[in-house]
Design a protein that fits this description.
Elements (H helix, E strand, L loop, with lengths): L8 H20 L4 H19 L4 H8 L7 H8 L1 E6 L11 E8 L2 E8 L5 H6 L7 H17 L3 E7 L6 H5 L2 H13 L5 E10 H5 L6 E5 L3 E3 L3 H9 L5 H8 L3 H6 L5 E3 L10 H19 L4 H13 L8
Parallel strand pairs: 3-4, 4-5, 5-6, 5-7, 6-8
Antiparallel strand pairs: 1-2, 2-3
Length: about 325
């Protein structure tokens, strides 16, 4: 069962009331269509009010929703004939990052993405979507393969951050992330990254050096989690809500600052409400952007990527 978030409690209660009336009407053979239609109209108005006025912390909760669609969910709905590849040809296979090749509208494409679980067992298997260095090396191996065969690259970003454990550091976590940043900057094929959930720190950026970066409407992208920032700034993780507001981590803030290229609208209430419809919105965005990027030459693709990141952080003193 989906976990309810505090800000949407009024919507949840009204939905339950409508379901209750429908159940009564069906069992008692009573005509309650007028009452149900009235409540459904009120529900639509309430959804618009609630979901169009979400605060940054509300969006953090939606991005972390346990039933939020993952990379594999979108692969299933958007692409065909997906073949997953495993291992970094050095240490092992990291299931927190998945990757492989598939067809996108009859065009071969390389897909790489963070993968978290929806159950405790699956989260343990996927290390809660926090990759080890071998995960990033697997991703880079697939990127270089895509470059060799001229395939566009699509990255789905959804991680709290790279795994901070001792073993990961011993195997070169920082070096693996840095190598990805360096190599992605010079890839000779189109690269598109989409933040579908949480985009945390270098763990997210290691798949984020792209020609185009998009975010789902309720996703987040930041150097640190709100709880982590609150712990550092105010020595109190309970102030995460205030930190989320101050950090400008929402898609709306990042688009305004020019860090991302666009926002992909979500279904009312979040992507988990309708995976198929959300996948269609992502597909339309990909079709449009890949069509544009394919018109660029190799040198233009690299220059386009360089110019994109070069201007991030620029400001004019008043």
């Amino acid at each position: 069962m989906a976990k309810n978030m505090a800000f949407e409690e009024p919507v949840i209660k009204l939905r339950e009331k409508i379901d209750e009336l429908k159940d009564i009407a069906s069992k008692a053979d009573v005509d309650m269509r007028e009452e149900i239609e009235t409540l459904e109209t009120r529900l639509k108005q309430l959804e618009i009010k609630v979901y169009s006025n979400m605060e940054p912390w509300d969006r953090v909760q939606v991005a972390r929703h346990p039933e939020r669609p993952t990379t594999l969910d979108y692969i299933k709905e958007i692409f065909t004939d997906f073949i997953e590849f495993h291992g970094d040809r050095n240490f092992g296979d990291d299931e927190a990052i998945i990757g492989g090749i598939a067809f996108f509208e009859d065009t071969p494409i390389t897909i790489i993405g963070h993968q978290r679980g929806k159950t405790t067992k699956e989260n343990i298997r996927r290390n809660f979507g926090m990759p080890h260095p071998e995960g990033y090396r697997k991703a880079l191996r697939l990127m270089k393969q895509a470059e060799k065969f001229g395939r566009p690259i699509l990255c789905f970003i959804d991680t709290k951050g790279a795994y901070p454990g001792k073993a990961a550091e011993q195997r070169g976590q920082s070096e693996a992330i840095a190598k990805n940043l360096f190599e992605m900057a010079g890839l000779k094929v189109p690269v598109i990254s989409i933040v579908i959930g949480e985009g945390g720190s270098g763990g997210a950026l290691a798949l984020g050096v792209a020609n185009r970066i998009f975010m789902l409407e309720n996703s987040t992208y930041s150097v640190i989690s709100p709880e982590g920032a609150a712990s550092i700034l105010w020595k109190d993780a309970s102030l995460a809500k205030q930190a989320a507001e101050a950090m400008k981590i929402t898609a709306q803030d990042l688009k305004q600052m020019g860090i991302i290229d666009g926002i992909i609208p979500e279904i009312s209430g979040g992507a988990h409400r309708n995976v198929i419809a959300q996948a269609l919105a992502i597909k339309e965005c990909l079709l449009d952007e890949l069509t544009k990027l394919r018109l660029l030459s190799t040198s233009e693709l690299i220059e386009d990527r360089y110019n994109k990141f070069r201007v991030i952080g620029e400001f004019i003193e008043q």
